[in-house]
Design brief:
With 130 residues, the chain is α+β, with helices and mostly antiparallel strands. The chain has helices spanning 2-9, 110-120; strands at 14-16, 22-29, 38-44, 61-64, 73-74, 77-78, 93-96, 126-127. The longest helix is centred in the C-terminal third of the chain and has 11 residues, at 110-120. The chain is globular.
Amino acid sequence: MQDPLVELSRYFCLWVDDWDRFVIVREVTLPPGFNRRSTDVLIELPEDYPMSPPGVAGSRIYVNAGLTFHRRIPAEYRECSSPTYGTPGFGPWAWICYEHIHWNPVRDNLVRFVEMLRADLTQPPTIQKP
């Protein structure tokens, strides 16, 4: 798992779980319209990565809680869900449902994954704030 993380660390500051279950990508810049300039992104790593992309099946993607887009909640964003393990000094988290990904395990990597996520957050569908 080290090679993909070394590549990712060339572009972002990282915090890596001791058991390679997940990586936290620090201060990923958000597109205009969000109430914050950046968010940390927690990427759970599938056991068969890179054959399976992050965020599908048993793995999830989390971002900082409290995000809004033009004062509305992104439709795929769930604040009531957070990781089942501790992330001391990070969080609170919200799950972002990100399973609609076109992934090629030969071509794609974690850097590309973060950029795909950012691109999909450019104009996310939203719901009214409760």
